[in-house]
Amino acid sequence: MMPRPVLRDYFHLTYRKIPVLAIGKDVYCDTSIILEALEQAFPDIQRSLYPRAADGRDNRAIIRGFQSYWTDTVALWLTHRRQRPLFRVATGLLPSVVWRTRFGQDRAGLIGHPLDPDKLEAKIPRNLAHLDLHLSLIEPQLASGGWLFQTETPSLADISLYYQLDWARTFSAGNGISNLTAGDAADTNEDVIGSVFNGQRYPNMWTWFHRFWQYINNLPSTETRVAENAEKVIRQHLQISSLATESTLLSTPAVPLEALDVRLGLRRGAEVTIAPDDTGQNDPTRGFLEDASPEEVVVKPVESADVRLHFPRLGFVINPVKSSKL
Predict the structure, then answer these.
(1) Rounded to the nearest 10 degrees, how much is the dihedral formed by the CA atoms of 226, 230, 236, 238?
(2) Contact call for residues 236 and 18 (beta carbons, < 8 A)
(3) Which of 98, 70, 255, 260 has its CA nearest to residue 185?
(4) What SS3 class is residue 167?
(5) Which of 288, 133, 290, 159 is nearest to 212 (CA)?
(6) Counts for the chain of helices (H) and strands (E), in that order
């Protein structure tokens, strides 16, 4: 699965992961920065991903840290790669048949090394033990019967934890793997994680999991699905959108430290490459650095000055393009 042609052709974006978000002609890559962009673009205290705790405390920083470092990304220094502790456990529970398909071959290329289906299957018990560890660590946090950080409504922490567990529960059973592998593997229905994740072993987690499901299903749908050709929709979007003239950096507690970025070779206008520091490193996005903050970099693609691409600094590698010396 090469970089998606629609994103490559219209936004000059070779970023392979999902999702991406376009607000006007500003394109945000990676869930972490997308969430912050939505919070800033559509401020609504009643719908915030960071509701205050019942005692009035603002736990935004720790909620973001929980999402980024626990459920999503954390450094694994032994391999000098970034891994996802809970997500890595979830993917490690996939049936081995998935890795024997074209999807498995593609993911091997994305990761950068071959995947051995037999070895991965042999690691499923270890990953079940790791899942048990995560559940054990989180169980006491839910003893009050509320949400993870005692907020009045679910926060980003609840969302990120729920989707990881739901993903693990669904795909480890083989549900949906036919869709995942484009028909190369047939769906199955085997309860793989039930011995670890159940109401007797972790009653707080179990109750929270089903309460969250009910909460989400009771929300009104606000999704608008577009049945038209994707390229047509994007062309229309670009035609009616304009590029904002003012800075579009997301708010951060501290101002940009330009002198430090200059020491890294990240001067405004410099050509840079940006790629995730875990998977997808072989398809970096190239652009000219327009702006940077402690948490974000903004570039204009080499091929076009009519769009801006936003990347988080956490989980990405930004390098200046060195001029060749003759």
Answers:
(1) 120
(2) no
(3) 98
(4) helix
(5) 159
(6) 13, 9
Instruction: Give the CA dihedral 240, 245, 251, 255, nearest 10 degrees.
Output: 160
The pLDDT tens digits of the residues spanning 188-244 come to: 999 999 999 999 999 999 999 999 999 999 998 887 777 667 777 777 777 778 777
Q: Which residue has the tokens 């200059």?
A: 262
Block residue for tokens 């394109």: 27
Q: Which residues contact residue 224 at a Cβ distance below 8 angstroms, ignoring those fewer than 6 apart?
A: none
The tens digit of pLDDT for each residue in 7-16 reads 788 788 877 7
Is-cis flag, bond preceding 19, omega within 30?
yes
d(CA 28, CA 326): 37
Distance CA 269, CA 53 (A): 43
Contact by Cβ (8 Å): 148, 141: yes
Residue 260 has pLDDT above 70, yes or no: yes
The two tokens of residue 258 are 């330009």
Q: Cα–Cα distance between 281 and 303 in angstroms, integer?
A: 20
Helix (H, G, I), strand (E, B) or coil at 91: helix
Can you give the pTM of this predicted structure?
0.86
What's the DSSP call for residue 102?
A: H
Q: What confidence tens digit (pLDDT) does each residue in 265-307 have?
A: 999 999 999 988 876 677 788 999 999 999 999 999 888 768 8
Burial 218-248 (b: 16+ CB within 10 A, else e): eeeeeeeeeeeeeeeebeeebeeeeeeeeeb
Residues in the chain: 326
**What was the pLDDT predicted at 84?**
52
